[in-house]
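Appendix B. Extra example for self-study. Work through it before the problem class; the solution is given directly after the inputs so you can check yourself.
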Amino acid sequence: MLEIAELPVVDAHCHPFLNPGELSVEAFVDLVALGGGSQRFMEEGGLAFTSAVRTELQRVKRDTVYFRRLVRDLAAFFGVEPELDQVLERRNAAVRAGYRGYVGRLFRDAGIVTLIADMGYPQPPVDLATFRREVPAGVVPIFRIEPLIARLLAEDLGWPEFRRRFDESIANALQRDGYRGLKSVIAYRTGLDVSPLSRSPDQGLMAYDGVKRGLGGDAMKRLRDHLLCRALELCIEYDVPMQIHTGVGDVEINLPYCRPSYLMELLRFPAFRACRVVLVHSGYPYHREAAYMAHVLPRVYCDVSEGIPFAGHAAPALIREVLEMAPLSKVVYGSDGFALPELNYTAAKLAKQALGLALGQLVEEGMLSKTEAEEAAWLILAGTARRLYRLD
Amino acid sequence: MLEIAELPVVDAHCHPFLNPGELSVEAFVDLVALGGGSQRFMEEGGLAFTSAVRTELQRVKRDTVYFRRLVRDLAAFFGVEPELDQVLERRNAAVRAGYRGYVGRLFRDAGIVTLIADMGYPQPPVDLATFRREVPAGVVPIFRIEPLIARLLAEDLGWPEFRRRFDESIANALQRDGYRGLKSVIAYRTGLDVSPLSRSPDQGLMAYDGVKRGLGGDAMKRLRDHLLCRALELCIEYDVPMQIHTGVGDVEINLPYCRPSYLMELLRFPAFRACRVVLVHSGYPYHREAAYMAHVLPRVYCDVSEGIPFAGHAAPALIREVLEMAPLSKVVYGSDGFALPELNYTAAKLAKQALGLALGQLVEEGMLSKTEAEEAAWLILAGTARRLYRLD
Amino acid sequence: MLEIAELPVVDAHCHPFLNPGELSVEAFVDLVALGGGSQRFMEEGGLAFTSAVRTELQRVKRDTVYFRRLVRDLAAFFGVEPELDQVLERRNAAVRAGYRGYVGRLFRDAGIVTLIADMGYPQPPVDLATFRREVPAGVVPIFRIEPLIARLLAEDLGWPEFRRRFDESIANALQRDGYRGLKSVIAYRTGLDVSPLSRSPDQGLMAYDGVKRGLGGDAMKRLRDHLLCRALELCIEYDVPMQIHTGVGDVEINLPYCRPSYLMELLRFPAFRACRVVLVHSGYPYHREAAYMAHVLPRVYCDVSEGIPFAGHAAPALIREVLEMAPLSKVVYGSDGFALPELNYTAAKLAKQALGLALGQLVEEGMLSKTEAEEAAWLILAGTARRLYRLD
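Solution. Structure tokens for the complete assembly:
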């Protein structure tokens, strides 16, 4: 067990959130869960939202090990019993007394100093200035390409203008508005099996024409694939990292095509080798694939967000399994937090415990010296993200 | 280490078996193994079944960790050395003295009170009444759709009649004959990549016509896909669970298409969201996929059968990995036992040891309280299956 | 923890290497790394090979847990601090004093007595006689089919002559030149999804014609698939094992199609059931698939090379996870070592520690007796390979 509770934390993958005010127990549960269904999800399924169905959904969310741990972490923070209603009472009192101060105490306790925030979720976007004002931590915004694609598709543009506006919007984000990287969630759309040949300008032209004329087929996939290639090119040009969602996520994920291995052909293609690419979530539960890619592709990185905290007690195994092949200096911590600062908090606490455990074992097993393990913890929690996003 | 040896056990996925009488060592080995080949398997491969080949097959089966554990469990039960011949001698003596009494002692020692039995294996079917008479435990039968499909295909029916008889047979099973759920092994046939569009009546008509006229192509797959959708609809109508085999199994499995992730598009489709679906075997070794689906799809459940006991020492890891994302109240224990009661026995013993270990670790790691862990053990061993199959 | 440090080791999968002489620190790092990129890889990616890029590549390679462990193992061997420059200094001195003696001391310390060497890597081939002279261990060569295919394709042959020469070259290797098995790396080419129907002579003829006439399409895949089937037939005829690469490897791997599960249909086909097949690397990180195949297919074996040592601390988990389903007598140790004897050394040291740990746990968990665990260690380290390759 390594002692790392005091280390500073850069949360290298999360989402912005605003003060939601006081919350009922049910609303809190709904906000912190990754999945488990919503009223709308069940009603679309033809189920009247009776109190039995409401209870069923709440049960599904409260019965994950992740949720139980969240309650325990917050109970320890507030010094109360790990009972949800007691925790919520104290939480609401703290928010009443001052949201920013409360977030500050949470973040100080967990050591969180910087949030690298994918502004593409939620939609419509959270106002960056308000987020910054409310959260006492550095905020580094990341620009997601899919909302831009949706916005441009909604306008009546020719392909040259579409493409010009795509490039220009990204240039503005990176050069004018302080964004420090791009993000794609193509794994939620048409999947990660993107051929590097998609970067051809003709593919963009032909696919866009097909989409505009409603030809169907795989026109939309070919358009998204083309624009992902373009985003990689722009990341190289502006020297910023590209984050790509890999692995599971909320219920909308394209599950058969979210495996990081589908990106291999794209990322080893000569034209994209110079790009620094973060395989967001390390593709959990396919994280050994992501780790392998970080091993053989010099500029591919893994983050361990989402698995931490939503896979609960998986945290030490996730770190251990990613480090089987990913270099110690190519793994970054993140929470995938959204909606509430308590998510970022419990993720950071869990990650420190898990890193202490996993790296401590590597020392015991004669794989690393204690110094090497401590350096690795620092790199994963903050150092590598600082280098990757040029935070100094 | 949680103390749970005394908890009652509902074996939520297994198969019926009749008293095989006394057994030679070789026959016993052949009966309890999941795989490892048979005389017929080798002879089809052009190998004369010499005594060397016979020895080779026996070795493959006896050299699994699962088999070694089975012998140790039975040796402890009989109070003899863990030597196969000593165990068999005592077993045969116990069977001679009274099969039902012997099964009763096994089940009492392991706490087994109820068997939820997929009657579709073996074929031809075991007589349910005889099984019930021979086994001193509650027996809850489950109706497998593939033998029904085979039976109806063998008759010369038009599609309307085929379809009527399909529905009627299921209605009879569920309403008249006491079956409590349906089961599909489409993962052994055409695979789990079933589009929800397959529920269209026209797909059934067109596919059935193609099968009957010998058109080949994917007619049989489209027919099976359609009938799986119909089975889901009937499960909703009669309010019973649908069991779907996922993951590996015996040598006939459709390995590339047995991953639970292929079911995602089907199970999140609005028309099927109301159905309670058990991902049988949690898709081992793809159980993290199944667990994710149980996390984001409110009515999808995992069982941990087959992995327990056939993956031997995997049991604690399997439970731990499934619980990373599956809610504590959406995982059920099962053995996948068949042929011999000793299988149900060793699986239950192993599961209790593994649950005690895995849940005990979660307490040590600060993920759950001891009370939460004990409640989870009860839910997994019996509580959730009781609720799901309305055993009260 | 089982005491097995003194057991003899057959390295059942590795590659030949010649004395490279003294090495700079950078050259040593480049030689022992599995991946992480090369000057050429980066330059093809449009990156000038500045000193910053050179440093970046070295960092990627030195920051794997595997590399750190290698340094620690060698430091212990030489009795110096685990500092790379100190280790290299001693290593170079030892090589200067006599390469063969140095290799002998390494191998004696690790217990390595035999190397089963896939002579197909590196290319052009290492001279077998020189390798044998330089290395004080038994060398058992394995014949890789892909260099033969490349050589025959480069000549202007008709199909009957191509096919005759293919068979003849393999016959010569196995009957005249002392090779003890075949090897395929089709997972690096067209992938493992090989239909057993590919063995049809007409498929060979048609595919070869397509390749020769430059028809493109899948002609090359169909040719490779056909020749893999032919290799399996020849292995049956000459009664030698077939090694098939599965799972990840260097950066050229066909990642989406390297999963062992794609081989299932081929290997259970009656015509190939008699062939002893080693799933090289157990398909890491898909090793649970390989283990399942070793469970249900009587003549399919797993080796644990590459994962050991390149996945570092994965070694105990890899062994444990493979043994979940693979019989104890169907798993063989290997290193995938190449280029330097230090690789074979660290792999063997790591494997013994990992086996001691993993098998020791199985004893503690009541899965195996101590005697069974010790026998399993011996089988994995040497016994099964001795039987499989008829080393007695």
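Self-check: The CA atoms of residues 278 and 301 of chain A lie 5 Å apart. If your reasoning did not lead you there, revisit section 3.
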